[in-house]
Amino acid sequence: MKILVDENMPYARELFSRLGEVKAVPGRPLPVSELSDAEALMVRSVTKVNEALLQGHGVKFVGTATAGTDHVDQAWLAQQGIGFSAAPGCNAIAVVEYVFSALLMLAERDGFALRDRTVGIVGVGNVGSRLQARLEALGIRTLLCDPPRKDRGDDGDFQPLETLVREADILTFHTPLYKEGQYKTLHMADEALIASLKPGAILVNACRGPVVDNAALRRRLEAGQALSTVLDVWEPEPDLDVELLKRVDIGTAHIAGYTLEGKARGTTQVFEAYSTFLGQSQQVALDTLLPTPDVVRLAVHGPLNQALLKRLAHLVYDVRRDDALLRHATGRPGEFDKLRKNYAERREWSSLYVLCDDAATAALLQKLGFGAVHHPSH
Ligand SMILES: NC(=O)C1=CN([C@@H]2O[C@H](COP(=O)(O)OP(=O)(O)OC[C@H]3O[C@@H](n4cnc5c(N)ncnc54)[C@H](O)[C@@H]3O)[C@@H](O)[C@H]2O)C=CC1
Ligand SMILES: O=C(O)C(=O)[C@H](O)COP(=O)(O)O
After folding, report:
1. What predicted TM-score, i.e. pTM, was given to this entire model?
2. Could you report the predicted ipTM of this complex, rounded to two decimals?
3. Is 97 a catalytic residue?
4. Which residue from 175, 177, 250 has its CB within 8 A of the most atoms of ligand 1, so it is best to mutate?
5. Gap from CA of 373 to ligand 2 centroid (Å)
6. Domains of the chain
7. Half-sphere exposure of 56 toward its Cβ, with a 13 Å CA cutoff?
């Protein structure tokens, strides 16, 4: 049995070879000839999975090692009786830590305290809710917008988008891309919304490029609107607007979710789903796969303030590395995908074990996701 896997899926060969013969292939473009004798296809977000790709082939199961599913025509798969699984939440922590890395950098550069800012979170799912929890642990006010959850009657103080636009100093988008329907998110941040943001606001898009109207954003920035912007995703990818990139404060190549943990969880989640589909259910413990990080342990002295948090967060992941790489590469065909394919190992805050001589610091760092322990005499 042949299982096709995207070559940008760590641990895929190791895991899926327990179930069949594995062939790793590029995802964009996917070599269609490889589909003829494949029973299963494991993709990432760059492969459009639909009738045009799969009609006439014998693929029985599709897995995507991603949280987003807008690249997959799930209705067509269901109609054809093809099994499907995504990897919900696999990289949510990575995206949260990307957002923190960016906000801590901007706060230091522009000399403000995050504690004095209100953060509006649009889309309060796996990413948004984890972001909210960490911001609130730091005493930072959040405003939440998630109409589907509000309509479902979920607990939470969900506000209309207009309230967030009016009151938030930082507006960050974490929704799926819906091109139509009641909860349409395509161009949710349109020119009117962007123009209505508070002076000096920060706009973050780490979900899908077309959630923010990129042409409108460029016009607003060219017009001199006082706005800082952090874009991990673009409209379109991989051929982003180079003039827009020049004007954003932080621009990266759709790598917010690219921690090793996040990618490995994506692989293990679709592996587990496929093994269940085959009636051979298997679980994988993530820590048996992951290598030891470069920096394992350190000791900090005294209370946690923003400067110390920034030093710790940036020791694990400094978003400026990815910003510099994208600026350097942009304009050359193929470079966006090459950056993503050759992405250097990046770990999550949990990989860093922090010894603290202050008990409150240890407790707070734990809440924020670091490995941390109170050790009075270190
Ligand atoms: N840049 C990157 O590397 C990554 C990007 N993503 C993108 O971020 C999105 C969010 O990720 P997760 O939190 O894991 O997904 P999720 O599905 O757990 O959460 C999405 C939330 O958005 C809400 N939502 C849907 N329509 C909305 C609307 N019109 N307005 C406000 N909220 C709305 C949903 O109710 C849900 O609570 C994914 O769909 C994916 O497209 C996810 C991971 C990595
Ligand atoms: O999980 C998602 O959704 C994402 O956006 C992924 O981080 C994107 O990574 P690729 O699947 O494009 O490698």
Report:
1. 0.98
2. 0.99
3. no
4. 175
5. 33
6. 2-86+259-288 (3.40.50.720), 91-251 (3.40.50.720), 297-374 (3.30.1370.170)
7. 6
